[in-house]
Design goal:
There is one protein chain. This protein is α+β, with helices and mostly antiparallel strands and 537 residues long. Among the domains are: 58-189, Dipeptide-binding Protein, Domain 1 (Dipeptide-binding Protein, domain 1, Alpha-Beta Complex), CATH 3.90.76.10; 291-509, Dipeptide-binding Protein, Domain 3 (Dipeptide-binding Protein, domain 3), CATH 3.10.105. The protein contains 17 helices and 19 strands. The protein has helices at residues 5-20, 51-57, 115-126, 141-145, 148-151, 174-178, 188-197, 250-258, 273-278, 307-316, 319-327, 357-366, 390-402, 415-424, 442-445, 467-477, 482-499; strands at 31-34, 65-67, 74-76, 79-84, 90-95, 152-159, 162-167, 213-219, 223-228, 241-245, 282-288, 291-297, 331-333, 374-378, 407-411, 429-435, 502-515, 518-519, 535-536. Strands 11, 12, 13, 16 and 17 form a five-stranded antiparallel β-sheet that branches. The chain has a four-stranded mixed β-sheet with strand order 1-10-9-8, with helices on one face. Strand 2 and strand 3 (74-76) form a beta hairpin. Helix 10 runs antiparallel to helix 12 and helix 16 packs antiparallel against helix 17. 52% of the residues are buried.
Length: 537
Protein backbone atom coordinates (compact mmCIF):
# COMPACT_ATOMS: atom_id res chain seq x y z
CA UNK A 1 0.00 0.00 0.00
CA UNK A 2 1.39 3.40 -0.93
CA UNK A 3 2.00 5.64 2.05
CA UNK A 4 0.79 9.23 1.85
CA UNK A 5 3.19 12.02 2.73
CA UNK A 6 0.97 13.02 5.65
CA UNK A 7 0.88 9.47 7.01
CA UNK A 8 4.64 9.15 6.66
CA UNK A 9 5.01 12.47 8.47
CA UNK A 10 3.07 11.14 11.45
CA UNK A 11 5.25 8.02 11.52
CA UNK A 12 8.35 10.19 11.26
CA UNK A 13 7.15 12.31 14.18
CA UNK A 14 6.60 9.22 16.29
CA UNK A 15 10.07 7.93 15.47
CA UNK A 16 11.57 11.33 16.21
CA UNK A 17 9.91 11.29 19.63
CA UNK A 18 11.30 7.90 20.57
CA UNK A 19 14.67 8.13 18.83
CA UNK A 20 15.79 11.67 18.08
CA UNK A 21 14.81 12.92 21.57
CA UNK A 22 16.08 10.24 23.97
CA UNK A 23 15.35 10.14 27.70
CA UNK A 24 18.05 11.07 30.14
CA UNK A 25 18.80 7.40 30.74
CA UNK A 26 19.26 6.91 27.01
CA UNK A 27 21.26 10.08 26.43
CA UNK A 28 24.55 8.26 25.97
CA UNK A 29 23.12 5.42 23.85
CA UNK A 30 23.71 5.29 20.12
CA UNK A 31 20.59 4.68 18.04
CA UNK A 32 20.79 4.54 14.26
CA UNK A 33 17.61 4.92 12.21
CA UNK A 34 17.51 3.28 8.79
CA UNK A 35 14.68 4.38 6.50
CA UNK A 36 13.94 1.02 4.90
CA UNK A 37 11.82 0.74 1.76
CA UNK A 38 9.34 -1.91 2.87
CA UNK A 39 8.19 -4.47 5.40
CA UNK A 40 9.85 -7.89 5.58
CA UNK A 41 7.74 -10.88 4.68
CA UNK A 42 8.85 -12.55 7.92
CA UNK A 43 11.96 -13.11 10.02
CA UNK A 44 13.28 -16.25 8.37
CA UNK A 45 15.63 -15.72 5.39
CA UNK A 46 15.28 -19.40 4.45
CA UNK A 47 11.79 -18.88 3.04
CA UNK A 48 12.14 -15.59 1.15
CA UNK A 49 14.51 -14.14 -1.42
CA UNK A 50 13.83 -10.39 -1.31
CA UNK A 51 16.48 -7.87 -0.33
CA UNK A 52 13.94 -6.21 1.98
CA UNK A 53 13.58 -9.40 4.02
CA UNK A 54 17.31 -10.15 3.90
CA UNK A 55 18.06 -6.68 5.31
CA UNK A 56 15.59 -7.12 8.16
CA UNK A 57 17.13 -10.49 9.06
CA UNK A 58 20.77 -9.47 8.66
CA UNK A 59 21.09 -8.13 12.24
CA UNK A 60 19.62 -11.28 13.78
CA UNK A 61 21.51 -14.23 12.35
CA UNK A 62 24.91 -15.64 11.44
CA UNK A 63 25.86 -18.33 8.96
CA UNK A 64 28.64 -20.87 9.26
CA UNK A 65 30.52 -18.43 7.06
CA UNK A 66 29.71 -14.80 6.26
CA UNK A 67 30.68 -12.23 3.67
CA UNK A 68 33.15 -9.65 4.91
CA UNK A 69 31.42 -6.29 5.14
CA UNK A 70 31.51 -4.38 1.85
CA UNK A 71 33.01 -7.30 -0.12
CA UNK A 72 32.24 -10.77 -1.45
CA UNK A 73 35.18 -12.24 0.50
CA UNK A 74 34.17 -15.22 2.64
CA UNK A 75 35.21 -15.09 6.28
CA UNK A 76 34.59 -17.35 9.28
CA UNK A 77 31.23 -17.03 11.00
CA UNK A 78 29.82 -19.67 13.33
CA UNK A 79 32.45 -21.98 11.86
CA UNK A 80 35.87 -20.75 12.89
CA UNK A 81 37.50 -22.85 10.16
CA UNK A 82 36.69 -25.50 7.54
CA UNK A 83 38.37 -28.17 5.43
CA UNK A 84 37.54 -29.38 1.92
CA UNK A 85 38.50 -32.88 0.77
CA UNK A 86 40.77 -33.30 -2.26
CA UNK A 87 37.89 -34.56 -4.39
CA UNK A 88 35.72 -31.57 -3.47
CA UNK A 89 32.94 -33.75 -2.11
CA UNK A 90 33.33 -33.29 1.66
CA UNK A 91 33.23 -30.03 3.63
CA UNK A 92 34.03 -30.23 7.32
CA UNK A 93 33.11 -27.21 9.48
CA UNK A 94 34.70 -26.73 12.89
CA UNK A 95 32.22 -24.75 14.96
CA UNK A 96 32.95 -21.82 17.20
CA UNK A 97 32.56 -22.51 20.93
CA UNK A 98 30.90 -20.21 23.44
CA UNK A 99 28.32 -18.75 21.00
CA UNK A 100 25.11 -17.70 22.71
CA UNK A 101 21.60 -17.51 21.30
CA UNK A 102 19.21 -14.62 21.89
CA UNK A 103 16.28 -14.94 24.26
CA UNK A 104 12.79 -13.44 24.33
CA UNK A 105 9.84 -13.34 26.71
CA UNK A 106 8.89 -16.93 25.90
CA UNK A 107 12.32 -18.56 25.40
CA UNK A 108 15.50 -18.68 27.43
CA UNK A 109 18.19 -20.91 25.91
CA UNK A 110 19.69 -23.55 28.19
CA UNK A 111 22.74 -24.23 26.02
CA UNK A 112 25.11 -22.57 23.59
CA UNK A 113 25.18 -23.01 19.81
CA UNK A 114 26.30 -26.44 18.62
CA UNK A 115 26.09 -28.92 15.74
CA UNK A 116 22.43 -29.73 16.46
CA UNK A 117 21.49 -26.23 15.33
CA UNK A 118 23.30 -26.66 12.03
CA UNK A 119 21.57 -29.99 11.39
CA UNK A 120 18.18 -28.51 12.32
CA UNK A 121 18.65 -25.49 10.03
CA UNK A 122 19.54 -27.44 6.91
CA UNK A 123 17.37 -30.50 7.42
CA UNK A 124 14.30 -28.31 7.82
CA UNK A 125 14.86 -27.14 4.25
CA UNK A 126 16.02 -30.49 2.90
CA UNK A 127 14.01 -33.30 4.52
CA UNK A 128 10.33 -33.45 3.56
CA UNK A 129 9.54 -35.44 6.71
CA UNK A 130 11.19 -32.88 9.02
CA UNK A 131 8.58 -31.54 11.49
CA UNK A 132 9.34 -27.97 10.37
CA UNK A 133 9.51 -28.56 6.62
CA UNK A 134 5.94 -27.47 5.91
CA UNK A 135 5.79 -24.69 8.51
CA UNK A 136 5.07 -21.21 7.07
CA UNK A 137 4.22 -22.68 3.71
CA UNK A 138 7.21 -24.96 3.31
CA UNK A 139 8.75 -23.02 0.44
CA UNK A 140 12.56 -22.88 0.38
CA UNK A 141 13.13 -21.03 -2.87
CA UNK A 142 16.88 -20.59 -2.53
CA UNK A 143 17.69 -24.00 -1.13
CA UNK A 144 15.65 -25.66 -3.88
CA UNK A 145 16.53 -23.23 -6.66
CA UNK A 146 20.28 -23.75 -6.39
CA UNK A 147 19.79 -27.51 -6.48
CA UNK A 148 20.79 -28.43 -2.93
CA UNK A 149 18.12 -31.16 -2.54
CA UNK A 150 19.81 -33.22 -5.24
CA UNK A 151 23.36 -32.08 -4.46
CA UNK A 152 23.48 -33.09 -0.80
CA UNK A 153 24.46 -36.64 0.09
CA UNK A 154 24.50 -36.26 3.88
CA UNK A 155 24.92 -33.77 6.73
CA UNK A 156 26.61 -35.46 9.66
CA UNK A 157 27.24 -34.44 13.24
CA UNK A 158 30.78 -35.57 13.98
CA UNK A 159 30.64 -34.13 17.50
CA UNK A 160 29.07 -31.11 19.20
CA UNK A 161 31.41 -28.73 17.40
CA UNK A 162 32.08 -30.46 14.09
CA UNK A 163 29.68 -30.89 11.16
CA UNK A 164 30.41 -32.64 7.88
CA UNK A 165 28.58 -31.93 4.62
CA UNK A 166 28.94 -34.57 1.90
CA UNK A 167 27.84 -33.73 -1.64
CA UNK A 168 27.33 -35.89 -4.73
CA UNK A 169 29.41 -33.85 -7.17
CA UNK A 170 31.90 -30.99 -7.01
CA UNK A 171 30.17 -27.62 -6.65
CA UNK A 172 32.27 -24.51 -7.35
CA UNK A 173 29.92 -22.00 -5.65
CA UNK A 174 29.30 -24.15 -2.56
CA UNK A 175 31.15 -21.98 -0.04
CA UNK A 176 29.76 -18.76 -1.50
CA UNK A 177 26.27 -20.26 -1.23
CA UNK A 178 26.91 -21.12 2.42
CA UNK A 179 27.48 -17.42 3.15
CA UNK A 180 24.04 -16.49 1.81
CA UNK A 181 21.05 -15.62 4.03
CA UNK A 182 19.19 -18.91 3.46
CA UNK A 183 22.02 -20.63 5.36
CA UNK A 184 21.47 -18.54 8.51
CA UNK A 185 21.58 -20.76 11.58
CA UNK A 186 18.53 -21.12 13.82
CA UNK A 187 18.07 -22.61 17.28
CA UNK A 188 17.05 -26.27 17.38
CA UNK A 189 16.17 -25.89 21.07
CA UNK A 190 13.78 -23.01 20.29
CA UNK A 191 12.27 -25.06 17.48
CA UNK A 192 11.67 -28.01 19.80
CA UNK A 193 10.01 -25.80 22.41
CA UNK A 194 7.67 -24.19 19.88
CA UNK A 195 6.79 -27.57 18.36
CA UNK A 196 5.87 -28.91 21.80
CA UNK A 197 3.71 -25.83 22.44
CA UNK A 198 1.92 -26.29 19.11
CA UNK A 199 3.13 -22.93 17.75
CA UNK A 200 5.99 -23.83 15.35
CA UNK A 201 5.23 -20.87 13.03
CA UNK A 202 6.51 -18.48 15.71
CA UNK A 203 10.08 -19.46 14.79
CA UNK A 204 9.64 -17.41 11.60
CA UNK A 205 7.93 -14.43 13.23
CA UNK A 206 9.55 -14.16 16.67
CA UNK A 207 13.17 -14.86 15.72
CA UNK A 208 15.95 -16.29 17.84
CA UNK A 209 19.42 -16.12 16.30
CA UNK A 210 23.05 -15.62 17.28
CA UNK A 211 23.48 -12.28 15.45
CA UNK A 212 24.73 -8.93 16.74
CA UNK A 213 21.22 -7.56 17.40
CA UNK A 214 18.06 -8.94 18.97
CA UNK A 215 14.52 -8.12 17.86
CA UNK A 216 12.67 -5.84 20.28
CA UNK A 217 9.48 -5.04 18.38
CA UNK A 218 8.03 -5.17 14.88
CA UNK A 219 5.09 -3.05 13.71
CA UNK A 220 4.19 -3.97 10.13
CA UNK A 221 4.53 -1.05 7.71
CA UNK A 222 5.81 1.16 10.55
CA UNK A 223 9.07 0.10 12.18
CA UNK A 224 11.38 -2.66 13.38
CA UNK A 225 13.35 -2.06 16.57
CA UNK A 226 16.52 -3.96 17.45
CA UNK A 227 18.83 -3.87 20.47
CA UNK A 228 22.54 -4.72 20.44
CA UNK A 229 23.17 -8.23 21.76
CA UNK A 230 25.60 -7.77 24.64
CA UNK A 231 26.76 -11.40 24.49
CA UNK A 232 27.46 -11.46 20.76
CA UNK A 233 30.42 -13.73 20.03
CA UNK A 234 32.07 -11.09 17.82
CA UNK A 235 31.80 -8.40 20.50
CA UNK A 236 28.96 -5.99 21.20
CA UNK A 237 28.02 -3.73 18.28
CA UNK A 238 29.14 -0.07 18.50
CA UNK A 239 25.45 0.86 18.13
CA UNK A 240 23.16 0.32 21.10
CA UNK A 241 19.93 0.37 19.13
CA UNK A 242 18.92 0.01 15.50
CA UNK A 243 15.57 1.15 14.09
CA UNK A 244 14.18 0.35 10.65
CA UNK A 245 11.67 3.14 9.91
CA UNK A 246 9.61 1.58 7.11
CA UNK A 247 9.20 4.32 4.48
CA UNK A 248 8.13 3.11 1.01
CA UNK A 249 8.16 6.53 -0.69
CA UNK A 250 11.63 7.63 -1.86
CA UNK A 251 10.72 11.32 -1.61
CA UNK A 252 9.68 10.84 2.02
CA UNK A 253 12.88 8.90 2.76
CA UNK A 254 14.94 11.77 1.41
CA UNK A 255 12.94 14.35 3.39
CA UNK A 256 13.46 12.37 6.60
CA UNK A 257 17.17 11.92 5.89
CA UNK A 258 17.60 15.64 5.23
CA UNK A 259 15.73 16.48 8.44
CA UNK A 260 17.89 14.11 10.48
CA UNK A 261 14.98 11.78 11.26
CA UNK A 262 16.94 8.89 9.80
CA UNK A 263 20.65 8.30 9.20
CA UNK A 264 20.62 6.04 6.13
CA UNK A 265 18.03 6.03 3.30
CA UNK A 266 18.43 3.59 0.38
CA UNK A 267 17.15 3.77 -3.19
CA UNK A 268 16.84 7.53 -3.80
CA UNK A 269 14.90 8.88 -6.74
CA UNK A 270 17.39 9.38 -9.58
CA UNK A 271 16.04 12.91 -10.11
CA UNK A 272 17.02 13.80 -6.54
CA UNK A 273 20.67 12.73 -6.84
CA UNK A 274 22.11 16.20 -7.71
CA UNK A 275 20.34 17.74 -4.68
CA UNK A 276 21.47 14.93 -2.39
CA UNK A 277 25.03 15.18 -3.64
CA UNK A 278 25.09 18.92 -2.93
CA UNK A 279 23.86 18.59 0.67
CA UNK A 280 26.81 19.21 3.04
CA UNK A 281 25.34 16.89 5.68
CA UNK A 282 25.04 13.88 3.38
CA UNK A 283 27.61 11.42 2.09
CA UNK A 284 26.25 9.98 -1.17
CA UNK A 285 27.85 6.56 -1.50
CA UNK A 286 27.71 4.79 -4.86
CA UNK A 287 28.73 1.44 -6.32
CA UNK A 288 28.29 -0.20 -9.71
CA UNK A 289 25.53 -2.70 -9.09
CA UNK A 290 25.93 -6.47 -9.31
CA UNK A 291 22.39 -6.54 -10.64
CA UNK A 292 19.94 -6.83 -13.52
CA UNK A 293 16.48 -5.32 -14.03
CA UNK A 294 14.28 -7.21 -16.50
CA UNK A 295 10.85 -8.02 -17.86
CA UNK A 296 10.23 -11.79 -17.95
CA UNK A 297 7.89 -13.59 -20.31
CA UNK A 298 6.00 -16.48 -18.75
CA UNK A 299 7.07 -19.03 -21.37
CA UNK A 300 4.44 -21.53 -20.21
CA UNK A 301 1.52 -19.25 -21.12
CA UNK A 302 0.32 -18.49 -24.64
CA UNK A 303 1.21 -16.54 -26.66
CA UNK A 304 4.63 -16.40 -24.98
CA UNK A 305 5.17 -20.10 -25.58
CA UNK A 306 6.14 -18.94 -29.11
CA UNK A 307 9.69 -17.60 -29.39
CA UNK A 308 8.65 -15.43 -32.33
CA UNK A 309 6.15 -13.59 -30.14
CA UNK A 310 8.75 -13.05 -27.41
CA UNK A 311 11.21 -11.67 -29.93
CA UNK A 312 8.58 -9.40 -31.49
CA UNK A 313 7.71 -7.90 -28.12
CA UNK A 314 11.39 -7.24 -27.44
CA UNK A 315 11.76 -5.55 -30.83
CA UNK A 316 8.78 -3.29 -30.10
CA UNK A 317 10.14 -1.93 -26.81
CA UNK A 318 12.40 1.14 -26.92
CA UNK A 319 14.64 0.02 -24.08
CA UNK A 320 17.10 2.89 -24.38
CA UNK A 321 14.30 5.45 -23.97
CA UNK A 322 13.02 3.54 -20.94
CA UNK A 323 16.44 3.35 -19.31
CA UNK A 324 17.02 7.06 -19.94
CA UNK A 325 13.64 7.98 -18.46
CA UNK A 326 13.46 5.56 -15.52
CA UNK A 327 17.11 5.41 -14.43
CA UNK A 328 18.04 8.99 -15.37
CA UNK A 329 21.75 8.35 -15.67
CA UNK A 330 21.91 5.80 -12.84
CA UNK A 331 21.74 2.75 -15.12
CA UNK A 332 23.11 1.30 -18.33
CA UNK A 333 21.30 -0.74 -20.98
CA UNK A 334 21.55 -4.48 -20.32
CA UNK A 335 21.97 -7.13 -22.98
CA UNK A 336 22.92 -10.18 -20.89
CA UNK A 337 21.33 -11.65 -17.76
CA UNK A 338 24.56 -11.02 -15.81
CA UNK A 339 26.24 -7.62 -15.36
CA UNK A 340 29.58 -6.67 -16.97
CA UNK A 341 31.09 -6.67 -13.46
CA UNK A 342 31.17 -10.48 -13.78
CA UNK A 343 34.43 -10.09 -15.72
CA UNK A 344 35.49 -13.02 -17.87
CA UNK A 345 32.12 -14.71 -17.45
CA UNK A 346 30.30 -11.88 -19.27
CA UNK A 347 29.82 -12.61 -23.00
CA UNK A 348 31.00 -9.49 -24.81
CA UNK A 349 30.12 -10.89 -28.24
CA UNK A 350 26.34 -11.01 -27.75
CA UNK A 351 24.41 -8.89 -30.26
CA UNK A 352 21.27 -7.28 -28.91
CA UNK A 353 17.80 -7.38 -30.44
CA UNK A 354 17.28 -4.07 -32.32
CA UNK A 355 14.42 -1.65 -31.65
CA UNK A 356 12.26 -2.24 -34.72
CA UNK A 357 8.46 -1.78 -34.33
CA UNK A 358 7.75 -2.47 -38.00
CA UNK A 359 9.78 -5.67 -37.86
CA UNK A 360 7.91 -6.59 -34.69
CA UNK A 361 4.55 -6.25 -36.49
CA UNK A 362 5.72 -8.55 -39.28
CA UNK A 363 6.98 -11.15 -36.82
CA UNK A 364 3.70 -11.06 -34.87
CA UNK A 365 1.75 -11.57 -38.10
CA UNK A 366 3.99 -14.53 -38.93
CA UNK A 367 3.22 -15.97 -35.51
CA UNK A 368 -0.52 -15.66 -36.14
CA UNK A 369 -1.24 -12.33 -34.46
CA UNK A 370 -1.62 -9.77 -37.28
CA UNK A 371 -3.90 -7.65 -35.07
CA UNK A 372 -1.94 -8.11 -31.87
CA UNK A 373 -3.34 -9.59 -28.65
CA UNK A 374 -4.09 -8.73 -25.03
CA UNK A 375 -1.74 -9.44 -22.15
CA UNK A 376 -0.93 -8.40 -18.61
CA UNK A 377 2.29 -6.80 -17.38
CA UNK A 378 3.00 -6.98 -13.68
CA UNK A 379 4.81 -4.02 -12.08
CA UNK A 380 6.58 -3.99 -8.71
CA UNK A 381 5.00 -1.70 -6.09
CA UNK A 382 8.37 -0.82 -4.52
CA UNK A 383 11.71 0.60 -5.55
CA UNK A 384 14.57 -1.83 -5.78
CA UNK A 385 18.29 -1.31 -6.39
CA UNK A 386 17.82 -2.69 -9.90
CA UNK A 387 14.72 -0.61 -10.71
CA UNK A 388 13.85 2.81 -9.26
CA UNK A 389 10.36 3.00 -10.80
CA UNK A 390 8.77 -0.20 -12.10
CA UNK A 391 5.39 1.46 -12.60
CA UNK A 392 6.88 4.05 -14.95
CA UNK A 393 8.71 1.28 -16.80
CA UNK A 394 5.47 -0.64 -17.19
CA UNK A 395 3.66 2.41 -18.55
CA UNK A 396 6.35 3.00 -21.17
CA UNK A 397 6.30 -0.67 -22.23
CA UNK A 398 2.50 -0.44 -22.40
CA UNK A 399 2.72 2.60 -24.71
CA UNK A 400 5.31 0.95 -26.96
CA UNK A 401 3.30 -2.25 -27.34
CA UNK A 402 0.11 -0.35 -28.11
CA UNK A 403 1.84 0.84 -31.30
CA UNK A 404 1.97 -2.75 -32.60
CA UNK A 405 -1.56 -3.67 -31.53
CA UNK A 406 -0.73 -5.36 -28.23
CA UNK A 407 -3.04 -4.19 -25.43
CA UNK A 408 -1.37 -4.32 -22.03
CA UNK A 409 -3.09 -4.27 -18.63
CA UNK A 410 -0.77 -3.30 -15.78
CA UNK A 411 -1.15 -5.40 -12.62
CA UNK A 412 0.36 -4.89 -9.17
CA UNK A 413 0.04 -6.22 -5.61
CA UNK A 414 1.57 -5.59 -2.20
CA UNK A 415 5.27 -6.49 -2.43
CA UNK A 416 5.17 -9.82 -0.61
CA UNK A 417 2.05 -10.92 -2.47
CA UNK A 418 3.55 -9.71 -5.75
CA UNK A 419 6.63 -11.88 -5.34
CA UNK A 420 4.60 -14.89 -4.24
CA UNK A 421 2.23 -14.72 -7.20
CA UNK A 422 5.02 -14.11 -9.72
CA UNK A 423 6.95 -17.09 -8.43
CA UNK A 424 3.82 -19.21 -8.75
CA UNK A 425 3.61 -18.15 -12.41
CA UNK A 426 0.28 -16.31 -12.38
CA UNK A 427 1.52 -13.55 -14.72
CA UNK A 428 2.02 -13.36 -18.48
CA UNK A 429 4.73 -10.70 -18.31
CA UNK A 430 6.40 -9.52 -15.11
CA UNK A 431 8.90 -6.85 -14.07
CA UNK A 432 11.49 -7.99 -11.58
CA UNK A 433 15.22 -7.88 -11.07
CA UNK A 434 18.04 -9.38 -9.10
CA UNK A 435 21.08 -8.38 -7.13
CA UNK A 436 23.66 -11.14 -6.92
CA UNK A 437 23.77 -12.79 -3.51
CA UNK A 438 27.24 -14.31 -3.62
CA UNK A 439 29.26 -12.81 -6.49
CA UNK A 440 29.17 -16.00 -8.58
CA UNK A 441 27.62 -16.12 -12.10
CA UNK A 442 25.80 -19.29 -11.05
CA UNK A 443 23.69 -17.08 -8.79
CA UNK A 444 22.22 -15.46 -11.90
CA UNK A 445 22.42 -18.04 -14.66
CA UNK A 446 21.27 -21.06 -12.67
CA UNK A 447 19.32 -19.50 -9.81
CA UNK A 448 17.19 -17.32 -12.10
CA UNK A 449 17.05 -19.40 -15.27
CA UNK A 450 17.72 -23.05 -14.42
CA UNK A 451 15.11 -25.78 -14.56
CA UNK A 452 15.17 -26.38 -10.80
CA UNK A 453 14.15 -22.76 -10.22
CA UNK A 454 11.29 -22.91 -12.76
CA UNK A 455 9.05 -24.94 -10.47
CA UNK A 456 6.14 -23.15 -8.76
CA UNK A 457 7.58 -20.88 -6.09
CA UNK A 458 11.01 -20.76 -7.72
CA UNK A 459 13.04 -17.70 -8.68
CA UNK A 460 12.82 -18.45 -12.41
CA UNK A 461 9.70 -16.37 -13.07
CA UNK A 462 9.96 -16.98 -16.83
CA UNK A 463 9.15 -20.62 -15.93
CA UNK A 464 11.60 -21.46 -18.70
CA UNK A 465 13.15 -24.92 -18.58
CA UNK A 466 15.38 -25.45 -21.62
CA UNK A 467 17.40 -28.63 -21.24
CA UNK A 468 20.40 -27.68 -23.43
CA UNK A 469 20.81 -24.48 -21.39
CA UNK A 470 20.27 -26.24 -18.07
CA UNK A 471 22.86 -28.92 -18.87
CA UNK A 472 25.44 -26.19 -19.46
CA UNK A 473 24.86 -24.20 -16.27
CA UNK A 474 24.68 -27.35 -14.15
CA UNK A 475 27.98 -28.56 -15.62
CA UNK A 476 29.57 -25.14 -14.99
CA UNK A 477 28.81 -25.51 -11.28
CA UNK A 478 31.01 -28.58 -11.11
CA UNK A 479 34.14 -26.94 -12.54
CA UNK A 480 36.76 -25.11 -10.51
CA UNK A 481 38.75 -23.62 -13.41
CA UNK A 482 37.44 -20.06 -14.07
CA UNK A 483 38.35 -20.16 -17.77
CA UNK A 484 36.48 -23.41 -18.33
CA UNK A 485 33.48 -22.10 -16.45
CA UNK A 486 33.58 -18.89 -18.52
CA UNK A 487 33.39 -20.85 -21.80
CA UNK A 488 30.23 -22.56 -20.63
CA UNK A 489 28.69 -19.35 -19.34
CA UNK A 490 29.33 -17.59 -22.67
CA UNK A 491 27.41 -20.38 -24.41
CA UNK A 492 24.61 -20.20 -21.84
CA UNK A 493 24.21 -16.46 -22.47
CA UNK A 494 24.06 -17.10 -26.24
CA UNK A 495 21.24 -19.61 -25.78
CA UNK A 496 19.41 -17.27 -23.40
CA UNK A 497 19.54 -14.51 -26.01
CA UNK A 498 18.33 -16.76 -28.83
CA UNK A 499 15.42 -17.96 -26.72
CA UNK A 500 14.26 -14.39 -25.86
CA UNK A 501 13.40 -15.29 -22.28
CA UNK A 502 13.54 -11.74 -20.86
CA UNK A 503 13.60 -8.18 -22.03
CA UNK A 504 16.91 -7.29 -20.38
CA UNK A 505 16.50 -3.68 -19.25
CA UNK A 506 19.34 -2.28 -17.16
CA UNK A 507 22.22 -2.69 -14.77
CA UNK A 508 21.99 0.10 -12.23
CA UNK A 509 24.46 2.12 -10.25
CA UNK A 510 23.38 1.78 -6.61
CA UNK A 511 23.36 4.96 -4.55
CA UNK A 512 23.19 5.07 -0.76
CA UNK A 513 22.72 8.46 0.95
CA UNK A 514 24.14 8.45 4.49
CA UNK A 515 24.30 11.28 7.00
CA UNK A 516 27.86 12.35 7.78
CA UNK A 517 27.58 11.52 11.48
CA UNK A 518 27.44 7.84 10.48
CA UNK A 519 30.83 6.17 10.93
CA UNK A 520 32.11 3.23 8.83
CA UNK A 521 29.02 2.42 6.76
CA UNK A 522 30.19 0.15 3.95
CA UNK A 523 28.25 -0.36 0.76
CA UNK A 524 27.83 -4.01 -0.15
CA UNK A 525 28.25 -5.19 -3.76
CA UNK A 526 25.46 -7.64 -2.91
CA UNK A 527 22.99 -4.85 -2.17
CA UNK A 528 22.63 -5.63 1.53
CA UNK A 529 22.69 -3.15 4.40
CA UNK A 530 24.81 -4.41 7.28
CA UNK A 531 24.96 -2.32 10.47
CA UNK A 532 27.29 -4.40 12.63
CA UNK A 533 30.47 -2.34 12.85
CA UNK A 534 28.70 0.95 12.06
CA UNK A 535 28.73 3.73 14.66
CA UNK A 536 27.64 7.35 15.14
CA UNK A 537 29.76 10.37 15.93
Amino acid sequence: MKRTLAGAGVAAALIALCVAVPTAAQAQSKTLVYCSEGSPENFNPQINTTGTTFDANQPLYDGLVNFERGTINIRPGLAERWEVSDDGLTYTFFLRKGVKFHSNAAFKPTREFNADDVIFTFERQWKKDHPYHLVSGGGYDYFDGIGLPTLLEAIEKVDDHTVRFRIKRPEAPFMANMAMPFASIMSAEYGAQLLKAGTPEKIDQEPIGTGPFTLVRYQKDAQIRYRAFADYWGGKAPLDNLVFAITPDAAVRWAKLKAGECHVAPYPNPADLPIIKADPNINLMQKEGLNIGYVAFNTTKAPFTDNRVRRAIKMAVDRQAIVDNVYQGAGVLAKNPIPPTMGIHYNTEIQDVPYDPEGAKKLLAEAGFPNGFETDLWAMPVQRPHNPNARRMAEMVQADLAKIGVKVTIVSYEWGEYRKRLQQGEHQMGILGWTGDNGDPDNFLHTLLGCAASAPGGSNIAKWCHQPYDDIVVKAKSLSDPQERAKLYWEAQRIFKEENVWITMAHSVVYLPVRKEVVDMRQSPLGRHDFYGVSLK
